[in-house]
């Protein structure tokens, strides 16, 4: 069972022997010779470009692993970080604050004990 696409009537399925898998088949409605197409499931068709590239890289690495020096690896990681930083700026703005670390409320008493101002006084620090 193969999928074919008629220019007028769209995709249809036709049973054909394996020897003729690449041969055009007549459309059942208009008898026009129609080329075979490969219909992808929506889950595969909607995969992000980065995810698809990573999957292809993993498949390739299974047979022929990529070998790189430490400097090449660090360069690639730096490029990834720069790309992520750019993507983040693009989505928000430079002053969005979502990437900043939360300031700790931790303080120390004169005796050196931990103290969390504004926190529950009955909580015991660990």
Describe this structure in words.
This is FmdB family zinc ribbon protein. Residues 54-65, 74-85 have a biased composition (Basic and acidic residues). InterPro entries: Regulatory_FmdB_Zinc_ribbon. Residues 54-103 are annotated as: Disordered. Residues 1-39 form the Putative regulatory protein FmdB zinc ribbon domain. The mean pLDDT is 77. Among the domains are: 2-39, no CATH class; 49-91. It is of the alpha+beta class. The chain has helices spanning 42-45, 49-63, 70-91; strands spanning 2-6, 10-14, 25-26, 33-37, 107-108, 114-115. Strands 2-1-4-3 form a 4-stranded antiparallel sheet, with no helix packed on it. Strands 5-6 form a two-stranded antiparallel sheet. The protein contains 3 helices and 6 strands.
Report the portion of residues in β strands.
15-25%
**Which strand order does the major sheet show?**
2-1-4-3
Radius of gyration: 30 Å
Number of strands: 6
The biggest sheet, with number of strands, parallel, antiparallel or mixed sense and barrel status, is: 4 strands, antiparallel
Return residue spans where pLDDT drops below 50 for at least 5 consecutive residues.
none
Shape descriptor reads elongated
Mean pLDDT: 77
Could you tell me how far the N terminus lies from the C terminus, measured between alpha carbons in angstroms? 66 Å
From the helix content, strand content and strand pairing, which structural class follows? alpha+beta
What oligomeric arrangement do these chains adopt?
A: single chain
- Structure annotation, total helices: 3
Q: How would you spell out the order of helices and strands?
A: EEEEHHHEE
Helix content: 25-40%
């Amino acid at each position: 069972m193969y999928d074919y696409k008629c220019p007028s009537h769209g995709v249809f399925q036709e049973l054909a022997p394996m020897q003729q898998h690449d041969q055009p088949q007549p459309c059942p409605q208009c008898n026009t010779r129609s080329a075979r197409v490969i219909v992808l499931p929506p889950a595969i068709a909607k995969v992000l470009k980065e995810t698809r590239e990573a999957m292809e890289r993993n498949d390739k690495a299974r047979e022929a692993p990529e070998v790189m020096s430490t400097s090449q690896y660090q360069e690639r990681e730096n490029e990834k970080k720069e790309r992520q930083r750019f993507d983040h700026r693009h989505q928000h703005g430079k002053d969005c604050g979502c990437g900043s670390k939360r300031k700790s409320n931790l303080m120390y008493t004169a005796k050196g004990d931990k103290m969390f101002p504004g926190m529950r006084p009955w909580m015991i620090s660990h």
